[in-house]
Structures are given as structure tokens and as C-alpha cells.
Amino acid sequence: MIQLHRLRKAYRTRGRTVVAVDGVDLAVREGEVHGVLGRSGAGKSTLLRCVNLLERPDEGTVTVGGVDLTSLSERRLRRHRQRIGMIHQHFALLSSRTAAGNVAFPLEVMGVGRRERAARVAELLDLVGLTDRAHAYPAQLSGGQKQRVGIARALAGRPKVLLSDEATSALDPETTTSILELLRDLNRRLGLTILLITHEMEVVKRICDSATLMREGRIIESGRVPDLLARPGSALGQEMFRLGPVPVLPGTTVVDVTVTGGGTGESFVADLARTYDVDARILAGTIENLADGQAGRLRIALPGSAEANEAPLRHLREAGLTVEVAR
């Protein structure tokens, strides 16, 4: 659905060139929620704005729904942008218009007739749970309600792709949860492909099917969330499972074991004791709820060296667990 090929975008600032996006390749499948995670300055916002060409890349191509947007004239690009909705961190609502008026605005720009426009606005406000706030102005709405208006407005043109620019970072935790649940529900009910950027790991854990980690304009890793967590040495896995510093335990091998696919894997410790007479000691652990199941990581200490524990470690790997010798 979304394909970025060798995307590059640089800016001139204070007499020097800053490369915000540096040769990025990214593919987002139709119907999935894909999160781009990174700290401030990683290039996330620039990347997102290149998808609908609000920022035109210096190099590379942007293909959405099989159409190379970078090759289109401005007139054709405006038409194709209607198929890409966007929601913003700070809502970007028109203060002089009611909730209904804000949702109606893009429909007016598209030339939709008054009767059809009114019906569509009512449908969208009902979809985001704001029918009773149709005549309220932004100043009369809570942060969560403002974002729901923003989401309804982004859906006005019946897009197949929805871009989310830090849509929950200005909200409190409870409201963030409700907005993420709404986005996931819209993804499933409408078949939306959602590309969101965030600096919050909780957003990725809660609703993303796949994710990309960016640093300094480049992709560090990208893929389906369970696959990334099961990948030895995964930077995303380290971000998600914070087990603290690896302890120094002379005469032992410290191992991190990751379980994905819905299980939590506590039984493997007892299995090692039965099969290999190994006294595995649990040092730390965490279980995370993901968009489609659970994933867990346990840090265990095994007596003896890694070489001495070769058979037990091979046994764990053959059981489908990701095993990393931490020390």
C-alpha cells in the first residue's frame, strides 16, 4: 500500500545541510497499522510528511496504492491526496467552526453538495462517538474530543490510508488509550492502512502490527512487531523489554529468553530442570500485551559457562524461543 524507495530529504539551516531522511526504504502492507518509532530529531515527522508530499523529497520515490506520487503533476497530486487522511498532534482545528463545521470543511473543498455533506458529517461524528458534540466549538471540547474531530475530518474523503503525526502525545494516558482503541477499531472496520509516528513505545505495543525504528534519519530495523522481538540483538526488543543492567555472576551464564506468539514461556525453566537437571534461576522478567497477543522476556542464570550449557540453550532454541547470551 505504501512504498518508499531510497527516500532522502535535506534542509539548509544556519549555513549547513541537515539530512532529515537519509536513503530510507520502507514498505507498509495494506490494512496494517505501522508505527515509526524514534526520538526527537530522528526524522519521523519529515518521513511522514513525505508520504503525502507535504514535503517533497530531494531523492527517491513515494508510491501509495500503486501510484508513484512523486511523478504526478500538482493537479493530479491534489486529487490523490484526498485518498490520504492525516491527523495532527495539536489537532489543527478551525476555532471559528463547530465540530461539524470542521469535519465538513474538506468536503466543501471537494465540492460535495450540502445534503450529501450533512449526511457524511453526521455519519463521521457518529463513527468517532461525538454526535452529541456536533455544535460545540473547539474551545468547548476536551483534548480527546478535539482529536476525535480531527480523526473524523481526516476520514471525510473516504481515504484508504491514514497518517498520524504524534496524535496522542498531547493527551493524558486515559485519553491516549481511548484514541488508540478508536484508531485500531477504524483500522479493522474500514480496512484502513495506518502509518503513525510516535516516540512512545506504548503506542507501538498497543496497536501496531509492524514497526520501524529510526535514528538520525535512517532506519535501524523494520518488520512485524513479533518478528522484531524474536530477532536476536533487536534494538526494538531492547526498548520494549527493559530488564536493566546485566548482573555479573561469576560461574554462571546469564541468558535472555524471549517468547512471542501468545505464550509467556514460564514453563521452559521447569523443562530445563527436568530434561537437563539444570537449576535455572530467574533474575528478571516482563510480559507485554501487543496488538495481537503477548510477548515476554525472562532473564535467567544457568550454572556454568555458555559452552557447558550448549545443549540446554540449543533445546530452548529448538522449542521456538529466542535465546541471547547476555553475559
Automatic annotation (TrEMBL):
Q: Name one GO biological process term.
A: amino acid transport
Gene Ontology cellular component list: plasma membrane
Q: Can you provide one Gene Ontology molecular function annotated for this UniProt record?
A: ATP hydrolysis activity
Q: Which InterPro entries match?
A: AAA+_ATPase (IPR003593), ABC_transporter-like_ATP-bd (IPR003439), ABC_transporter-like_CS (IPR017871), ACT-like_dom_sf (IPR045865), MetN_ABC (IPR041701), MetN_ABC_transporter-like (IPR050086), NIL_domain (IPR018449), P-loop_NTPase (IPR027417)
In terms of Pfam families, this protein maps to: ABC_tran, NIL
- Keyword Transport among record annotations: yes
Q: Where is the ABC transporter domain?
A: 2-241
Q: Which SUPFAM superfamilies match?
A: ACT-like, P-loop containing nucleoside triphosphate hydrolases
Swiss-Prot/TrEMBL keywords: Amino-acid transport, ATP-binding, Cell membrane, Membrane, Nucleotide-binding, Translocase, Transport
The protein's matches in PANTHER family, at most eight in alphabetical order, are given as: AMINO ACID IMPORT ATP-BINDING PROTEIN, METHIONINE IMPORT ATP-BINDING PROTEIN METN
What family does the Swiss-Prot or TrEMBL record give for this protein? Belongs to the ABC transporter superfamily.
Function of the protein: Part of the ABC transporter FtsEX involved in cellular division. Has ATPase activity.
Subunit field text: Homodimer. Forms a membrane-associated complex with FtsX.
Q: What is this protein called?
A: Methionine import ATP-binding protein MetN
Which organism is the protein's source?
Planosporangium mesophilum
